[in-house]
Amino acid sequence: METFAAIEDGARSESSVWAAALRPSDERQLVAVFSELVPDHLRLGLETVYEAYLVHYGRPRLFDAPDADEAVLLGDYLYAHGLVRIAEAGGVDAVRVLAGLISRCAALRADGSAGDGEAWVEAARALGGAPDSDAVARALELHSARVAA
CA-CA distances (angstroms) from residue 67 to 26, 40, 71, 122? Predict the structure, then answer.
């Protein structure tokens, strides 16, 4: 999938550390989750931010950091890179939506509260997505499998 190749290529070009953290190609799980709910021009940025979220809080599809410290740094790199992509594709308002999403999800995680999947859906809608109920249900199911304890 083109989106995942762009995330991988970006990581490789940024740092040999990020390149080394990539899963072997036969272990990568190239399944888009919430990016399917937003307009095409925002998909790469949103999927990059979502991979960052998974590095911090779930089971990433592309990366396998060797330790917790590197996972924090890798996730932060992916958040920053995703926000740059969102800024280029959607401007300041799109960055505001994603910054709010990242903050909200971090607070939910810190409190041990549920609702992060719904926060991603709300952000997708705020970014101009108009997903139908089947697409939302599929995204929430995929997300739940990636962040389940």
Answer: 21, 34, 6, 32
